[in-house]
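hey so i finally got around to running the thing on that chain from the lab meeting. sorry it took forever, my laptop kept dying and i had to restart like 3 times. anyway pasting the input first so we r on the same page abt which one it is
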Amino acid sequence: MSDLKRILVVDDDRQVLRYLTELLQEAGYDTVSCERFLDAKGMLATSRPDLLLTDLRLGAYNGPQLAILARERHPGLPVIVLTGYEDPTLRDEATRAGASFLVKPVPRAILIEAVQKALAGGPVAE
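ok and heres what got predicted. didnt touch it at all, straight out
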């Protein structure tokens, strides 16, 4: 049985999704990737990842909405919301949803460190 931590990665930008997935796989994580909110919602209904890493904007939906769904189904699930928009309101929304908030572009080392901290149950600092 594998001890790899499974990360659900959600981003509606295919190129960003591929980059994040490859980066996390290179760092030794098992990844599941979804381009759409509804696909990620379906994944969360059938399995529990060790971490949810999601983009803020997901078409008609958003990352904090997905974080709320994820944490309702899987209490205590760590969530990191990534965004290209530094906005205090969006940050507050993500925080209220129980998620950490990182502004893109996030350097590789910072993202891996944030993932490690979130998986360990600690706060994710920018």
